[in-house]
Write a structure and sequence with these properties.
Blueprint lengths: L2 H20 L46 H9 L9 H18 L4 H15 L3 H16 L23 H20 L5 H12 L4 H6 L2 E4 L5 E4 L8 H23 L7 H12 L1 H8 L8 H8 L13 H11 L23 H6 L4 H23 L8 H8 L31
Antiparallel strand pairs: 1-2
Helix pairs in contact: 2-7, 3-4, 3-6, 5-6, 7-13, 9-10, 9-15, 10-11, 10-12, 10-15
């Protein structure tokens, strides 16, 4: 047996040992206390405990990977209609604007900010959100749509609200609120939203319940925390469609892998297929180096896991990878997206301890390789084009009308145990 073959079989034995030790389970990425993602409980703990719905009877479809979650996801796919603010919300917003208009007129910006903060606190609106709404309404009145920083003399435009014609002010506030509500309703996904969505689906929560009833998260020492991430979020339908296409790509990609392809990009594309649904396995295989493992070895390891025909079977780890792949926010401190480090085997497992540790550069290279490979697999087998967002685009997409008053800060998840080094640690073909 050649040295190359010996290295290949030695690495596959290590991968098999890790898969056996973990029972093939995908570990949920670790999150830091105090972040939005950290308060999402494990999927087995319902976030809508007061709104149970009987689980549907077990059917033959369950054997195809479709469980109780399919009912909720089907309802989410069928949501339709333009989301508009209620009459009550419109009346309330008009009252706030009319109250603030004379109080803000020709005042120093510091006083304006103090008044906005005071009124916003009573109304349950953050100062940034209320400031943005007022500026947008003044822009509608004057026709000047400028982008000014409210911290640097940008509040003088609010004087236009003071002497506005009542009918014109009503139209401006109505148009502004419609635009803001629609943009918020169809804002981008993020990891907390996806974890919450699948939590509800796992427990067969009605789709309308998830979009109208605050979820219950897990706060410090297990205390309940109300979560409003999904309230009114009509963009959830687009998120489900995105994940369905990932699942389609994984299914079609698996069939392609089973045909033992021989194209030059077969190994990298195969790793991308695995990463769509089983990132832990993809990471372990990629660490050996794409030039070491043929497609049949990748297909054989993937065959240990059941396939599924839609998004129902995606794990929390796979959802985290989907967010990282698209550039969506991951619920870190300051809402700044970060690259989640894929979880390794627990240090309590002897197979992982004996394998040693990887260098940070290896982990970064594997992460980059799998992101590129899985993006290509999604396009090739699922027809899903993914253009990864920048940090600024991700923040604006998730919070389309937020005005930053502090710079976002990076907040990486708790570092997991690194991967074992491969026998021939190379990512070169």
């Amino acid at each position: 047996m050649s040295a190359r073959s010996e290295a290949r079989f030695a690495w596959l034995r290590r991968v098999d040992q890790i898969l056996t030790a973990t029972a093939g389970a995908e570990e949920r990425p670790a999150t830091r206390p105090g972040t939005r993602a950290h308060t999402i409980p494990p999927r087995a703990v319902t976030m809508w405990p007061d709104h149970p719905r009987p689980l549907p009877p077990t059917t033959a479809a369950a054997a195809d990977g479709v469980g109780p979650a399919a009912t909720t996801l089907a309802e989410l796919r069928g949501l339709s209609g333009h989301h508009q603010p209620s009459e009550r919300a419109l009346s309330r917003t008009l009252a706030i604007v009319r109250t603030l208009a004379p109080a803000l007129y020709e005042r120093p910006d510091a006083q304006r900010q103090a008044v906005i903060a005071q009124v916003g606190e009573k109304a349950g609106i953050t100062p940034d959100e209320l400031t943005g709404l007022l500026l947008d309404a003044s822009h509608e009145l004057t026709g000047r749509h400028t982008q000014r920083d409210p911290r640097n003399g940008g509040l003088a435009e609010l004087d236009a609200l003071r002497h506005a014609d009542p009918a014109a002010l009503t139209r401006a506030v109505t148009d502004t609120l419609n635009q803001r509500v629609h943009a918020t309703a169809y804002s981008d996904p993020d990891l907390p939203r996806l974890w919450m969505m699948f939590n509800g689906a796992y427990h067969n929560a009605p789709a309308e319940t998830m979009l109208t009833v605050p979820a219950i998260g897990r706060g410090p020492k297990g205390s309940p925390v109300r979560r409003a991430d999904l309230l009114g979020w009509r963009g959830i339908t687009t998120a489900v469609s995105h994940l369905d296409q990932l699942a389609t790509a994984a299914t079609e990609g698996r069939r392609w892998l089973e045909s033992n392809p021989t194209s030059p990009d077969a190994v990298l594309l195969g790793l991308g297929v695995v990463d769509l649904t089983h990132p832990t396995l993809a990471r372990a295989l990629a660490a050996a180096g794409p030039g070491l493992l043929p497609p049949r070895d990748i297909a054989a390891r993937l065959a240990r896991f059941p396939s599924f025909r839609d998004a129902v079977g995606l794990s929390d780890a796979a959802l985290a990878e989907a967010c990282d792949r698209a550039g969506w926010l991951l619920g870190a401190g300051g809402e700044r997206p970060y690259a989640p480090r894929r979880p390794g085997a627990s240090p309590s497992r002897p197979t992982a301890r004996a394998a040693g540790k990887s260098q940070p550069g290896d982990i970064a290279a594997i992460r980059s390789l799998l992101r590129v490979a899985s993006t290509e697999a999604a396009a090739r087998f699922g027809g899903l084009t993914i253009n990864r967002l920048s940090a600024a685009e991700a923040y604006a997409g998730r919070y389309p009308h937020s005005h930053l008053t502090t710079a976002p800060t990076a907040d990486a998840p708790t570092p997991p145990t690194p991967l074992p080094p491969p026998p021939t640690a190379s990512l070169e073909m």
